[in-house]
């Protein structure tokens, strides 16, 4: 603190630096997240870690990761069942087309979605991506041709900018001190979805063959042997969509 004399007495002037936790911190930083008297007088709420918001983002990224990896255990069998080829040596080639279609779509539109979200908000981009998962996962499970499977996954990718948008939201709604904490949660749930996705695909594909006592040999899951894991993916995406719609606030 600095002092100066005036005609009426001693005037105390704040210095450029203030002591914080035994160290020095610039006075301008005191008015950052965490809530200052000025912010409270202006009617702004003091900052607190947005636990609920981070939780919603974690659910969103889990649903997205589930959709990305769920198909890998069965996509080779799917290519064969769709009649694209019966040559086992060629299955991997055609399976690669289906497996990469989602990422091709994402690559084509990721920059555009980023620019759009900077102007119109993050929340609509998250909701669009989730709704596209609900629809395209079901369509993929109902695919009756190789082309239909490719188109379903391609559209899913074209409409999906969830990962980058979610990370941007996490950085915008947390203080610098809490950004790492938020990123751990949302990327951790992304990683969990990467693990659970193949398990869901492997366990639930061809259910009429794997679990004949539970699924009829002439039922819908026998006709569409890869529908069940896609329906599970759609259901998880529905939960994530509702959570985002009801409880997630715009961060832009």
TrEMBL record:
Pfam family of the protein (one): MFS_1
Source superkingdom: Eukaryota
Subcellular location(s) per record: Membrane
Protein topology in the membrane: Multi-pass membrane protein
GO molecular function term, any single one: transmembrane transporter activity
Primary location class: membrane
Residues of the Major facilitator superfamily (MFS) profile domain: 53-252
Biased composition (Basic and acidic residues): 35-44
Alphabetical keyword list: Membrane, Transmembrane, Transmembrane helix, Transport
GO CC entries: membrane
Membrane-traversing stretches: 54-79, 91-113, 125-144, 150-170, 182-204, 224-248
InterPro entries noted in UniProt: MFS, MFS_dom, MFS_trans_sf, Tet-R_TetA/multi-R_MdtG-like
Sequence segments annotated as region (Disordered): 21-44
Protein name: Major facilitator superfamily (MFS) profile domain-containing protein
